[in-house]
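User: Predict the full complex structure for these chains.
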Amino acid sequence: MLPIQIRPDQVMDELTTFQNKLTQGLQNLADAGDIPAGVTPKEAVYREDKLTLYRFQAPASVVQHPVPLLIVYALVNRPYMTDLQEDRSTVKGLLDAGMDVYLIDWGYPDRADRFLTMDDYLNGYLDRCVDEICHRHKLDKINILGICQGGTFSLCYSAMHPEKVQNLITMVTPVNFHTPDNILSHWVKHVDIDTLVDTMGNIPGELLNWTFLNLKPYQLMGQKYLDMVEVLQDKSKLDNFLRMEKWIFDSPDQAGETYRQFIKDFYQQNKLMNGGLRIGEHEIDLANVTMPVLNIFAEQDHLVPPDASKALAGKVGTKDYTELSFPGGHIGIYVSGKAQKTVPPAIGKWVKERN
Amino acid sequence: MADNPFTPEDWMEAQRKYWSAWMDMSRKAMGNHNPGHTGWADGLDQWWKTVGSGMPLSGNEAMEQMLKMGRNYFSMAENLYQGNNATEALNRWLDQMNSAFQGFTQIPGASKDANAFWQMPMDTWRRATSSFMPMPGDFMQALRPPARAPYGDAVQEQLDRFLSVPGVGYTRESQEQYQNLAKVVINYQQAMQNYQAAFNKVGMDSIDRFRARLDDAGRQDQPITSMRALYDEWIDVCEEVYGEFVMSEEYAKLYGEMVNHLMAVKHQGTRLMDEVSESLNMPTRCEVNTLHRRLQESRREQHALKSALRKLTDQVNSMAPPAKAESGTSTASQNKDNASASRTASATPARSGRTTTPKRQTASTKAKQND
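Assistant: Here is the predicted structure of the two-chain assembly.
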């Protein structure tokens, strides 16, 4: 049998349909305007340099847990991914699950921030945010939810300051950076990071965008935009598409010195697994992570492979370690319909069981 | 609006009519059993030129990308349509693309879009790096071998010799700096060329695997029956071949070399700019870096001092005055109250950093000194 059975009139019909969708959807695209993201009401409770610590407004009908939960997001991309839209919001789900949610927005570093180190971020900014929340709630320790790179930061912070972390939740967090399927660590293997940072100062967001898009270039730079034609006529779906598009390309530059240490120590030398990692005056030993840990990973994560996250199991010092596997990808774990129903409620339940 | 004879609805209707007319022309050509070159991809281009000028979307990145991919899709359809047997037409098109990859050149016409498609990683690399390169992205493109081809290796040899001429006299150092810049630019161009050549190989491998997939589909009596299904299959194959290639040691080296050589260009460019800035009595990048570094060190020390001061204050507070202890209030609960008061005093909404020690703590310190 011939492998392709498409008649010329079929080809023409498909193209006509495609073109009609494009034409009819153009007006929606032109009218789209600015797409808001970050929908849950929130209050800025602390600012320092470009950092803002937010506290989200809880629904009046839900009794909040007495120990707040601080979301530590990655430096790459923006944290509004956790609160993208009304029906796709991890933050909203956590509030509904009774969590009192805080979030750090790291802001957009500029060239004057080039010499911010991981020590500055973790033992400086993050630590002062934790202190601020502790003071506001008259507590000695709080719950932390670290996401992606923010999860790795949270692990390091918890190892350095275990007395300030009651429960630790890590989401799609790389721990072992040298699993065979880790594309990013493979790509930076021969990159001279010192020269890169010494030359560029801060690392441009465009370079990071290029890296992420090139994980699946033909899908992310090609197929995706043909799929866009399919949603042009549906304003709601179009808004969702554009909101995600905005987030994907909203990549802050990375403070040079932090990038240097993160890529060299974590991606190139895998020190979080192998040992020898120092942040400021602290030697990082995951055995110091003695508080309960919930480790959530995505089964189809192409950015942080599941094995990179699951490596945490054998490294932390806690006896209360739980894993939660999510059947989806790195982004779907925050925004998919399935995630809304399962992930935030599971976090709420797990936290409540431990207080 | 009532005075406006041409509403947005009219405008949209005009666009629909434009495209319908274009497709009607194609249908007539099909009816004549002489499809030839339908020009669908060109039609999309032409349509967008007309539409784009009247829409607030020109320059919209998503729209541009959507049209670019649409063009690619139309081009694939166009090639499939040229002939009564779609399988044969597709094979012919794949052969064309294969030749294009092997020849490291672009064949005019149908394969141009497909070639551009396969080179998307390289294309986005140029776009991403042009924002922080001292010269536009096209500059490197102009240095590619096809641009130099008429002169062969002789140009390269002459260039190498010229760049190795030792500098003399008062401007010796300056000359060497510019020679270095030219050398690192050439090295970067070579690294890009190697990277691109590897992608041509990926393109050819993708074609082979695509053919194999189609053969399998035929053998298993599961033919592809729509344009979109064919396109998706094609994407799937490209990702599969690309995914294997980028996990190879060869790719890691090519990528590392390309980034490292780019940094050498940028580094040398900055160095030259610093020399110019210095000659104009302007701050150099190097000097600004020094300032930023020192400033960050000072801020770090400042935070450490604040933190140490807070700890000392807490320690002092914990040493309760005997007189108050005798009044019947327990030391521990009093200290807790002190600490709580100091935090309440400093906890203002969205404040910047921690406030200074409250007066109450100062009083406590004095009490301790009196002891």
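Chain B touches chain A through 101 residues (CB under 8 Å).
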